[in-house]
Amino acid sequence: MAVALAVFAHPDDMEFVAAGTLLRLKRVGYEVHSLAVANGCCGSSVYGRQETVSVRRAEAEEACRLVGFARHESLVNDLEVFYERRTLARLAALVRRVAPDIVLTHSPSDYMEDHECACRLAVSAAFVRGMRNLPTAPPTPAVDGPVTVYHAQPHGNRDPLGVVVRPTHFVDVDGELLEQKAAMLACHRSQLKWLDESQGIASHLEAMRGLMREVGEWSGRFEHAEGWRRRLALGFCAPDADPLATALAASCLRT
After folding, report:
1. Lower CB density within 10 Å: C or N end of the chain?
2. What's the distance, CA 169 to chain centroid?
3. Cα–Cα dist 136/191, whole Å
4. Each residue's pLDDT tens digit in the chain (255 positions)?
5. Spatial distance between the Cα atoms of 216 and 115, rounded to a whole number of angstroms
6. CA dist 237 to 68, 78, 102, 114, 243, Å?
């Protein structure tokens, strides 16, 4: 069975930018795994630190259980997503154990450091999957085989300097798929108040729909879409490998 692994920074990031694509991959036979590198401990003005971790963990479990994704435990606290040896060793062990054909992760350039560092860690963990002399924690045998890395849209579809980022791959998330994606995001109930207070996002569901609508307009074909850019193949897969477009066929527009 083909495997897709989503590596994002916080417990609700996957739902914002990648859940529709993962749902489509699951429909065509992929086994889907999800990791939030950070545990979400800073994402509340209501709960204390440890209570926030427990609440957000339960919300992430509910979202993944709703659609049958395998969820993996977070590795670090919020704002401790650093590109450093120990976290890389743990994530590399996960990549080797899951052996994904596709890795979906953040844009290399995004509005906050946790997103950018989670991206770097995901890319390196995929790159070192077959390096037998690279120690992991726990020790995990290296794996051979190709993996293709795709980068999601940055938050707001803009880079940190406000420059529009347009994807090369558009995945249709209209209709029932958008509602499933919204249902997953709605599981993260603790974020309603927090995102409004901290980032001016009054409704995370409407914000998500608006971002998907903009990407859909860019596609010229879909009403709502998730956008992706494929990472260069060197060290990962064949130069012409594009398993996302191949697997999703009619529901993926490649430009």
Report:
1. N
2. 15
3. 33
4. 999 999 999 999 999 999 999 999 999 999 999 999 999 998 777 888 999 999 999 999 999 999 999 999 999 999 999 999 999 999 999 999 999 999 999 999 999 999 999 999 999 999 999 999 999 999 999 999 999 999 999 999 999 999 999 999 999 999 999 999 999 998 998 877 655 555 554 477 888 999 999 999 999 999 999 999 999 999 999 999 999 999 999 999 999
5. 23
6. 27, 32, 10, 26, 10
Global pTM exceeds 0.70: yes
CATH code of the domain containing 208:
3.40.50.10320
> What are the distances in angstroms from CA 122 to CA 5, 49, 213, 218, 255?
10, 26, 27, 27, 25
Q: How far apart are the first and last CA of the chain?
A: 28
Q: Which amino acid is at 231?
A: R
Kindly state the tokens that stand for 131.
């390096």
- Whether 91 and 67 have beta carbons less than 8 Å apart is answered as no
Q: Which residues are bridge partners to 5 per DSSP? A: 33, 103
Cα angle vertex 20, ends 63, 7, to 5°?
65
Residues with Cβ within 8 Å of 49's Cβ and at least 6 positions away in sequence, in order, are 41, 42
The total domain count for the chain is 1
Residue type, 98: V
Q: Which domain holds residue 194?
A: 3-254
